[in-house]
Each structure stands twice: as structure tokens, then as C-alpha cells.
């Protein structure tokens, strides 16, 4: 990706990741839509031999040779037995029956995680720079499990199984389903056994935000990643005939519009259809839109597809207005005619102008790529939010990473808009979603795995979380674009990832498979569910004379639930020193608006004399009665001379 | 609807394999055969879970669930890219 390495400070941290600047023997497995192996992101110059013990390979297909594999792309497989059983044979006129990516998504995510550095990358001139994966020296193996008709769990499970036996160190899955119980969720089932084998599993949280309780992949042995913006934007200015000027975004790179204002019309007024404002196929009356800039509303059909509709009807340009569903969130698109996306407020004002002015006019000016945008990051409105409906006592998402307008490598089968009629072909594309933030974390996990070969998946996740930041340099909280207010731990978990700190976190919250087993007992799993999820049929996994509690799972964050009448809740945690000897002092506070939650930590000082040493502490939360559904938030921080170990607190009155 | 075939993921208790089978794949196929003449195994799993996936009618799935050694017959899920 371009800009993300700088934004994350990775350009300054080669010294911090000495071993993982090689990071050469870490393998990232990506389950997605496959790979376009000819892209330079899979160039293997400077890489050593394929890691010993690797069992993966490039499977053959009508358009994919085993020679596609090299020392960067060390595996590419495809799985379609489940898909074809459900959907019938793959239509090879549309899709490759091979590991080849005909969609673009898998090439984008795998090159984001571990693509080699590629100079001169851009999309139609936008976001230019050197595109690098998060772990540019790690190896990549792709497992194609997603086809035009979806991604089926029987294929996903088989691919996860094969990836583990091939020998991946990190599994990256930018896909999800509804919120099923863990033992019925195939990704959670596969991830559990992968975790037991020391494999780090990161998944996208989902794009169902900003509503509450919308996230996927919430199992505690999975790292669940939300999306935030970069400090980069692609502004386009819409100037109306009444002199008003509005900022939007666009990746349009074709012939510019004339600087003189052009006639402006609202699509709802240029159609015979009741849904004419959406600029859907065949809905616009050519005589009414010819040579004009058309104002379309977002929704129903794809954003860039609306541009095709306007262009086909003879329109000269398009302004695409957000509705309430997307508010002020602006996602840049590679429009095929001079087009720009604008927020809901601007859209509403433009609509009123177009409908009331006797001769409405407009012009669009494209301003290219701007960097240094502030505030950044902000939480993407689409990023799915907690609480974790399967286990409210586990705070999810875990953290956020860049997921808006991310440039990375793309398929050669499809244009930048992904629409069939888009005949353009690009080597890189800019797209948005928690699909993009997940591979960022997968690649960062690969860097940490290379720097700390002995760290468990939980320790890697802990390091990424406790060093995340939840505020800007000026102390204000990271904004949520959906509310314009500071985000809460239910939006961002621990906050935004900060790899330069994660490599030296000071303390980690480690979790073993046995701890997760205790967690399953705490959520009252019976022998069948435990056996189905963990593959171990141990009838007495949950001992009758022990008490189990979700609050005992050594998670790097806190989710506290009180009855509406208020009460107390105790959590226990154990931290492992992975840094210098030192003494840590705790600060902890939480509140629901102006109502404080009492947070007391015992002991309040922890002293470590050597690396690997473990110390435990107890946190007691207490609160008065509050209306059911009230949320409170806070943070628990252990600080020493050299390290800050932060954990978010979310409190809910049920 | 009861006769429509869908894919299910069948979780098996590995240690429950009867002695008269040499290896788990045979046991899985036999367990499937006992509820359906038409169904075939799509995949067997042995690293991240023990079991297999197969196309079953709902009636066959229910019959299978009550068989010894069968832990769970889980309907396949369709996941979406994010």
C-alpha cells in the first residue's frame, strides 16, 4: 500500500524490527478470492530460499501454472467443492477454475499484508508512491475460497486446514458471516485449532457499522479488526451557480469538465421512475440529462455503476450524494465520468438548489491527492461496532487499522470499479472496508512474529492492543465519522494500531489454549460444543468443583456488565514482562457520562526483575444503578519509566 | 424442503470410531451411507476439526445427528467479503 507505512511509522522502525526487517521466514496465509501472480507486489528479489518445511504450492488451473510460485508467493491454492455443490459448476467464461483472482479483493488484501515494495504505484495518478505490504519481506500464500456466488464454509474450513498443514504462521480472513455461536461458526472453529498450533488469526470486523452490535468474527481467539482513515484524501470541489462551494471526493482521472458552470439537474427530476434519484440502469431520460451534471443519490446500485448510467444517458458529470445511511462518510471512487461523492448535508443543500433554482448550474474541480489530512485517523462509519453479541463480556472489536481508500495491487480481470462494463485495467486499486484493515494487522502480526518468535498469538494480539492509541497528539479522542464525537471502546476497542510501539510493549496479556478452554466452560459450553469447537472430546473439560468466569479470561481489555440496579464485578489478569526489569504503577478510571464507575486495582504497583516474569492483579468495578442500556467507558493503564500498557474499559448496564 | 439437499459440516468424536474401521475416512463414509444412499463426502477434515462435509436433506441430517460418534451436524454458512 502507499502512505500506510509512513502513516503507521513503519518507515521509521526498521531499527525496531531488526530481525523482521528480514521477517523473511514468516508466512502469511490469506483466504480470499485468489491472487494475480504477475503483479510486482509478488516479486521475490532479495528473498532467500522458501522456508524449510513449507508444504504449500501453486496449484495448476487452465490459466495458472505452478511456475507462478516464487520465493514471495510461495503458495496459491483454490477450493470450490463446497461452492460447486451449492451453486453448480463454476462458469469458466467468467471465473478461473484456478487460484487466479478474477475479483481483485484477494490480490488487494494479500499485497497489503506482505507485498514487496513497488515504486511508482498509483491508481490513475492518485495515491502515488512506493507500495509496500506491512511485512514486505514476509512470504505470501493465497487460498481462494471466495467465488462470484460467495464464500462457503465447507471450502473455508478445508482451506484453513490446508493452510495450517502447509505451514503458515498468520491467517488473514477478510470475510465474515452473521453472528453465530462459536461452535457453529466455521471461521471460529478453524481459528481455534489454528491458535492451538500457534497461528495468529486476524479477521475483519465487518462493514455493518455504525449501528451497535454489528460485528462479525468476535471469538476471543481471533483478532477482530475495525477500520479507520489515513491522513490522505482525494478532494473534489463542487461549485454551484449560487457561488456555494462543497468538498467531496473522487478518483476520476479523465478529461476535466470545462471551468464554466454547466447545467445541473437532480436525477429525481430527470426520470419517470419513482426511484429515479438513484440513477439506476435505464432510469434517466436522455433528453433531460444530456450535457448536464446530474445529482444522484447513493443507494441500491453500486456507486460507480451510477456513473455508467449517467454517462450512457448523455450526462456530462455526476455528483453522488450520501443519504442518512452514510452520513458524512466519503469513500473515493474511480468514476468513469467527471464525478464526485459528497456528504449528506452537502447533498441535501445541492438537491434543494437543483429543485428550486430556475437555471441551476454547477462545476466540479478535481484536486488530486492530498496528504497530511487532519484529524486522522477517524473511525470509518461503516466499521462494525460492539458489543460482542455472542459474549458481551469480551470487548470487540479489538483495535482499528487503516481501512479507507487503501491502494494495493489489483486483478487483471476487472476494472477499478469492479463493474463488468468497466474496461479499464489497473495494476493497483483504491478500495475501502474492514477487509483492508484486517490484512494490515495480519502483516503487522507477521512483523511481530519475526521479531519475537516465541510469542503466542495472544501475546502478539496483546502487544498490538496495549500499545494502540485512542487519541490524537492534542489529547482529543479519535473521532467517529458517524457521530462527529470521540469514538468509544465499542467502536475502536483498544484504539488505532501503532506498530512502532507494539514491538516493545513492556507487558503482555498471554492466553493459552487451556485458558480458552476455561472460557468455554465459563460460557457454559457442554461436552458436545467443546468437542465440536476444540476437536478434543474431553468429557470432563469443565470440572464440577471449579468456578469459571469470563472475567477471568486474560484479555487485554475489559468489558464489564452490571444489572440496571448497579453492583460490583471483579476481573483478574496476569501480565508477563517481555521488556526490561521495571516497576509499573496503575491508573484506572471509568464513567458513564458524569456518573463515575469505581475502579480499584490490587496491587497498584507491579515490580518485575526479569523478562518472562508473571504478576497478577485484580480489578474491582463498582457502580450505582443506571438505566438499562447505559454505556460507560474508561481506561486502565500500567506505566513504567519505559512503557505504557493500556487497556480499554467498556461498562454496560443490562 | 425436507428433501432439498444442502451442505452440512459433520463434526465427529474422533475417539468414538468403532474398532471395525481401519481409518476415519471409512467410518465417515459408512456413517453417511447409513442415512443416505445418495449423499457423498465433499471434504474430510482432520487437522482443525474431525469430520466431513456432505450434501444431505434435512431428514438425513437429523438422522445423522442421533448417530453415535456424531457431535454436531452444522448447516454450511455462506460468508461475505468485507
A few lines on this structure:
The complex is a heterodimer of chains A (654) and B (82). With 654 residues, chain A is an alpha/beta fold.
Task: Describe the fold and architecture.
- The complex is a heterodimer of chains A (654) and B (82).
- Helix content of chain A is 20%, strand content 27%.
- Chain A is α/β, with parallel strands linked by helices.
- Mean pLDDT of chain A is 95; it is low at 19-23.
- In chain A, strands 26, 27, 28, 29, 30, 31, 32, 33 and 34 form a nine-stranded mixed sheet that branches. In chain A, strands 2-5-1-8-10-11-21 form a seven-stranded parallel sheet, sandwiched between helices. A seven-stranded mixed sheet of chain A has the order 14-13-19-15-16-17-18, sandwiched between helices.
- In chain A, helix 4 (105-114) runs parallel beside helix 10 and helix 5 runs parallel beside helix 6.
- Chain B is α+β, with helices and mostly antiparallel strands and 82 residues long.
- Helix content of chain B is 22%, strand content 34%.
- In chain B, strands 2-3-1-4 form a four-stranded antiparallel sheet.
- Chain B is globular.
- The mean pLDDT of chain B is 92.
- The chains are: A alpha/beta (654), B alpha+beta (82).
- Strand 9 (175-176) of chain A pairs antiparallel with strand 5 (78-81) of chain B.
Amino acid at each position: 500500500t502507499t502512505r500506510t507505512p509512513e502513516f503507521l511509522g513503519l518507515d521509521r522502525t526498521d531499527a525496531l524490527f531488526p530481525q523482521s526487517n528480514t521477517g523473511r521466514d514468516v508466512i502469511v496465509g490469506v483466504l480470499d478470492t485468489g491472487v494475480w501472480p504477475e503483479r510486482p507486489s509478488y516479486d521475490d528479489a532479495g528473498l532467500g530460499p522458501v522456508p524449510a518445511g513449507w508444504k504449500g504450492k501453486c496449484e495448476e488451473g487452465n490459466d495458472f501454472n505452478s511456475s507462478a510460485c516464487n520465493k514471495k508467493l510461495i503458495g496459491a491454492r483454490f477450493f470450490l467443492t463446497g461452492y460447486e455443490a451449492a451453486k453448480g459448476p463454476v462458469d469458466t467464461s467468467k471465473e478461473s477454475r484456478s487460484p487466479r483472482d478474477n475479483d481483485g479483493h484477494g490480490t488487494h488484501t494479500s499485497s497489503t499484508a506482505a507485498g514487496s515494495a513497488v515504486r511508482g504505484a498509483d491508481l490513475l495518478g492518485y495515491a502515488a508512491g512506493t507500495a509496500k505490504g506491512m511485512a514486505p519481506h514476509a512470504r505470501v500464500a493465497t487460498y481462494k475460497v471466495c467465488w462470484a456466488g460467495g464464500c462457503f464454509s465447507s471450502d473455508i474450513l478445508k482451506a484453513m486446514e490446508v493452510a495450517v498443514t502447509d505451514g503458515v504462521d498468520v491467517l488473514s480472513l477478510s470475510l465474515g458471516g452473521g453472528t453465530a455461536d462459536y461452535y457453529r461458526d466455521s471461521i471460529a472453529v478453524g481459528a481455534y485449532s489454528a491458535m492451538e498450533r500457534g497461528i495468529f488469526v486476524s479477521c475483519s470486523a465487518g462493514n455493518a457499522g455504525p449501528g451497535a452490535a454489528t460485528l462479525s468474527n468476535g471469538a476471543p481467539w481471533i483478532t477482530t479488526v475495525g477500520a479507520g482513515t489515513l491522513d490522505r484524501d482525494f478532494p473534489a470541489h463542487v461549485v454551484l451557480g449560487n457561488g456555494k462551494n462543497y468538498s467531496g471526493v473522487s478518483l476520476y482521472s479523465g478529461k476535466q469538465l470545462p471551468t464554466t458552470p454547466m447545467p445541473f439537474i437532480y436525477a429525481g427530476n430527470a426520470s419517470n421512475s419513482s426511484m429515479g434519484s438513484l440513477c439506476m440502469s435505464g432510469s434517466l431520460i436522455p433528453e433531460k440529462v444530456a450535457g448536464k451534471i446530474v445529482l444522484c443519490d447513493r443507494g441500491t446500485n453500486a456507486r460507480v455503476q451510477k456513473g455508467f448510467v449517467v454517462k450512457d444517458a448523455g450526462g456530462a458529470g455526476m455528483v453522488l450524494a450520501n443519504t442518512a445511511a452514510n452520513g458524512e462518510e466519503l469513500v473515493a471512487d474511480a468514476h468513469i465520468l467527471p464525478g464526485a461523492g459528497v456528504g449528506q448535508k452537502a447533498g441535501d443543500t445541492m438537491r434543494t438548489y437543483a429543485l428550486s433554482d430556475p437555471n441551476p448550474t454547477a462545476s466540479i474541480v478535481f484536486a488530486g491527492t492530498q496528504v497530511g489530512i487532519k484529524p486522522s485517523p477517524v473511525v470509518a462509519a461503516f466499521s462494525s461496532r460492539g458489543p460482542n453479541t455472542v459474549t458481551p463480556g469480551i470487548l470487540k472489536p479489538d483495535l482499528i487499522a487503516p481501512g479507507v481508500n487503501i491502494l494495493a495491487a489489483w486483478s487483471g480481470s476487472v476494472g477499478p470499479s469492479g463493474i463488468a462494463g468497466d474496461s479499464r485495467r489497473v495494476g493497483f486499486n483504491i478500495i475501502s472496508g474492514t477487509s483492508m484493515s484486517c490484512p494490515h494487522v495480519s502483516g503487522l502480526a507477521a512483523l511481530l512474529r519475526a521479531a519475537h518468535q516465541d510469542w503466542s498469538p495472544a501475546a502478539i494480539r496483546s502487544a498490538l492492543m496495549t500499545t494502540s492509541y485512542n487519541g490524537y497528539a492534542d489529547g482529543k479522542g479519535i473521532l467517529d465519522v458517524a457521530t462527529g464525537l470521540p469514538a468509544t471502546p465499542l467502536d475502536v476497542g483498544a484504539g488505532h494500531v501503532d506498530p512502532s510501539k507494539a514491538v516493545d510493549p513492556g507487558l503482555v496479556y498471554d492466553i493459552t489454549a487451556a485458558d480458552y478452554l476455561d472460557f468455554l466452560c465459563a460460557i457454559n459450553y457442554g461436552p458436545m460444543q467443546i468437542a465440536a469447537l476444540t476437536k478434543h472430546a474431553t468429557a470432563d473439560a469443565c470440572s464440577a468443583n471449579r468456578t469459571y468466569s469470563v472475567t477471568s479470561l486474560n484479555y487485554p481489555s475489559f468489558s464489564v456488565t452490571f444489572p440496571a440496579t448497579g453492583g460490583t464485578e471483579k476481573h483478574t489478569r496476569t501480565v508477563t514482562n517481555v521488556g526490561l526489569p521495571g516497576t509499573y504503577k496503575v491508573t484506572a478510571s471509568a464513567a458513564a457520562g458524569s456518573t463515575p464507575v469505581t475502579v480499584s486495582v490490587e496491587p497498584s504497583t507491579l515490580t518485575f526483575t526479569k523478562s518472562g516474569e508473571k504478576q497478577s492483579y485484580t480489578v474491582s468495578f463498582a457502580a450505582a444503578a443506571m438505566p438499562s442500556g447505559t454505556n460507560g467507558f474508561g481506561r486502565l493503564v500500567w506505566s513504567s519509566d519505559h512503557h505504557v500498557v493500556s487497556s480499554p474499559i467498556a461498562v454496560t448496564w443490562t | 424442503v425436507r428433501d432439498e439437499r444442502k451442505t452440512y459440516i459433520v463434526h465427529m468424536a474422533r475417539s468414538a470410531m468403532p474398532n471395525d474401521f481401519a481409518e476415519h475416512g471409512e467410518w465417515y463414509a459408512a456413517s453417511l451411507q447409513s442415512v443416505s444412499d445418495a449423499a457423498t463426502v465433499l471434504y474430510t477434515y482432520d487437522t482443525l476439526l474431525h469430520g466431513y462435509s456432505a450434501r444431505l436433506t434435512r431428514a438425513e441430517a437429523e438422522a445423522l445427528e442421533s448417530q453415535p460418534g456424531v457431535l454436531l451436524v452444522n448447516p454450511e454458512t455462506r460468508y461475505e467479503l468485507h
